């Protein structure tokens, strides 16, 4: 293989440990919810300016709780702010880990695809045979409608 962006080996023990860790994360974060597309569309969104307003409103209401009606739950308001403050750093780490996972998946896929193209070229040079015919059939499906492109590296005309 001429391209090798990444070499990665995951043992069965590592996979088992990661699965257990994910199970524990799901258990500990069982309070997280999923929203439908409609729910996401209908909810008010809190951007940076709105967040400043929210935090200031909380500060003012904490200093003057007597101006609130009895039905307003100031404690729940404070708990939601605290939950948000606790959740964000966790999500940042999870997002970074997920991005690394996606980048690794992309690199592995690219390595594999490059290796398959290289192997196909070698098989074509070696001659005909049942294995080459099968590979050529797969290549013709993959590259259908692309025509010949001799000027682009990595392409394999069918």
Description:
By secondary structure, this protein is mainly alpha-helical. Helix 3 (48-63) packs antiparallel against helix 4 (74-126). Helix content is 66%, strand content 0%.
Q: What share of residues are in beta strands?
A: under 5%
Main β sheet profile:
none
As a percent range, the share of helical residues equals 55-70%
Residue runs with pLDDT of under 50 for 5 or more positions: none
Radius of gyration: 27 Å
SS elements, strand count: 0
First-residue to last-residue Cα separation:
21 Å
Per the principal axes of the C-alpha atoms, what is the gross shape? Answer: elongated
Element-by-element helix/strand order:
HHHHH
pLDDT average, as an integer? 90
Number of helices: 5
Query: Helix/strand/pairing class, anyone?
Result: mainly alpha
Oligomeric grouping of the chains: single chain
Q: Secondary structure elements and their pairing?
A:
Layout (H helix, E strand, L loop, with lengths): L11 H17 L8 H6 L5 H16 L10 H53 L3 H13 L16
Helix pairs in contact: 3-4
